[in-house]
Amino acid sequence: MSSNSEFLWYIPNDVKAGHRGDTAAENHNSLDTLTSQAKALEAHGWKGALIGTGWGRPDTFTLATSLAARTTTFEPLIAIRPGYWRPAHFASAVATLDQLTGGRVRINIVSGKDNLAAYGDSEGDQADRYARTKEFMRLVCRLWTEENVTYAGKHFQVTGATVEPRIQVRGDRRHPRLYFGGASEAAERVSATEADVQLFWGEPLDGVRERIERLKGLSTELGRDLPPLEFGLRITTLVRDTTDQAWADAEARVAEMAKTKGEGWQDHREAVAVGQRRLLDLHARGEVLDDNLYTAPAQFGGGGAGATWLVGSAEDVARSLRKYRDLGITHFVLSDTPYLSEIKRQGDLVLPLLRD
Fold first, then answer.
1. What is d(CA 52, CA 10) in angstroms, rounded to the nearest whole number?
2. pLDDT at 356
3. pTM for the structure as a whole
4. Which SS3 state, helix, strand or coil, does residue 356 take?
5. Cβ proximity of 168 and 96 under 8 Å
6. Does residue 93 contact residue 61 with C-beta atoms inside 8 Å?
7. Most buried residue, 118, 236, 303, 317, by most Cβ within 10 Å?
8. Which pLDDT belongs to residue 288?
9. Contact 315, 296 (CB under 8 A)
């Protein structure tokens, strides 16, 4: 697999224990526990981790800052919502953390539903929501790359704004990468012009191929003025020593999810967005698609990255990930539970097969 592929994990950042079948320890969300995961990621070949966000969860930026301070190479992929931050305040916070960590910050912009009223935010229809996201992303990047910025948009305004410290250019990295998800037409139009990396949920290869082609076409059609859009995959990888053992464990886990109606798995079930609906509909095509993409979890409460799983031995899962790589995926955000032991197991067994 090409050396430009990057492998990240996932840190759930949830007040409730037992997220997606994780060990339900009392101290699951303590700084020591989460630091142990970040340090294990450093030790077992991972670049960093996506950190979950949402009202009712601990503040993602605060946790990312704390973990960055306790590690040396760990790169937090910090999920944030535009309505939760003002652009200039956000640009300043990121620039500060980026400077303090020597350029380790990545950002995942989330436009999905949240309890907006709880923090004084509101938004209009889907078109208005994505128009605001587009403004936010464009303005933040301007604040990182220009000085004395004046901007008057429908949603945001700044006058004579210069963010300090200045973002340091590092090779071809002009500023922290902006990752973005979303499968609706409105979301894809934002991604095509403003994002650095488009993240996909675990769809079959044909679906990912089709979306990559469409996004590349949209980038051209809409006059993208940034470097070419890159692509990432966010998916659960259930890896065991043998193929048979992996499938036995996967089926047992889904049976358990059926009993509990997927409790602890529904991060993305409050409002079924277009991308989530695509995952739910996959089961109609079959319980296993491609070689080992398991669609049953979505039927029993699995949401987002927990909706479809790549199941098998390390060799099976690595082979499937290489097929996504062949389509143009270069950013992989993997996970399974228990989080800590799987960081080590998959880092030691799967990542070496992807770096050959």
1. 8
2. 59
3. 0.94
4. coil
5. no
6. yes
7. 317
8. 96
9. no
